[in-house]
Amino acid sequence: MCRNLHEWGYVQLRPRPHNDTSDPVKQEQHIQRVNLLLPSQPDLWFQDETAFWANPAPYYIWARRGSKPSVPSRGGRLHVNVMGAVRPEDGRFFAFIASHGNQTLFQIFLDQMQDIVDKNRRVVMILDNARFHHVKSLDWGCIEPWYLPPCSPELNPIETLWLVMKKHFFNQWVPKNSNELEYRVSNAIAFYEDRPQIVRSACAIGTGLFESL
């Protein structure tokens, strides 16, 4: 049966949680708005923050029937926060480790993005509704912020990239201390910043976005 499932194109996947409080009408309006923007060829980025935990949830593995596989685990709430942005058009990815999410660190992120975006094109950054994303005193420079509908992480391609990074670098891996965790997160960021084709593939989400690409 497993062989047949593979032949039919099935693989084992861990389902992503879906927030049933999201508004499908607003989500569809957002998708249409983005697709109407694409023919003008903007420099389009998707931004998000995430946490890499020292004790991540294990992924499914193949094991002999009757066996009891285990993975290492450590207590506590040790984690590393990351701010990042991705350009699905070509897989360009930029991120850095942040102690936490707030206005000050997000402004530093925006300042550094000014050297990365293409100022010869209209620059649009799509991001969620975190409170510090809406602070009026933020200096966006040449970046035009567009906000996702509430409770709609599935419309943000970088969310998929975070999952790919965590599975590739942190599946069944547990650090001994915070320095070891931070070092591995830095390596994960550098790995994907240097591999735009992998990033572009990870961000090819099937939500109706990028119909014009």
Outline the fold blueprint.
Blueprint: H1 2-7, H2 24-37, E1 43-53, E2 79-87, E3 92-98, H3 103-113, E4 123-127, E5 143-147, H4 157-170, H5 178-193, H6 196-202
Report on the structure:
There is one protein chain. The protein is of the alpha/beta class. It has one domain: 2-Layer Sandwich (Nucleotidyltransferase, domain 5), CATH 3.30.420.10. The protein has 6 helices and 5 strands. A 5-stranded mixed β-sheet has the order 3-2-1-4-5, with helices on both faces. A hairpin with a 4-residue loop joins strand 2 and strand 3. The longest helix is centred in the last third of the chain and has 16 residues. It starts with a helix and ends in an 11-residue tail after the last helix. The model has no long low-confidence stretch (mean pLDDT 87).
Q: Beta-strand level of the residues, as a percent range?
A: 15-25%
What is the CATH superfamily label?
Answer: Ribonuclease H-like superfamily/Ribonuclease H
Radius of gyration: 19 Å
What spatial form do the alpha-carbon principal axes imply?
globular
Widest sheet: strand ordering: 3-2-1-4-5
Number of strands: 5
CATH architecture annotation name: 2-Layer Sandwich
What proportion of the residues is helical, as a percent range?
25-40%
Per CATH, the class reads Alpha Beta
Domains, number:
1
CATH topology: Nucleotidyltransferase, domain 5
Unreliable spans are none
Q: Helix- and strand-based class?
A: alpha/beta
- The rounded distance between the terminal residues' Cα atoms is 38 Å
List the secondary-structure elements in sequence, H or E. Answer: HHEEEHEEHHH
Tally of helical segments = 6
Arithmetic mean of pLDDT: 87
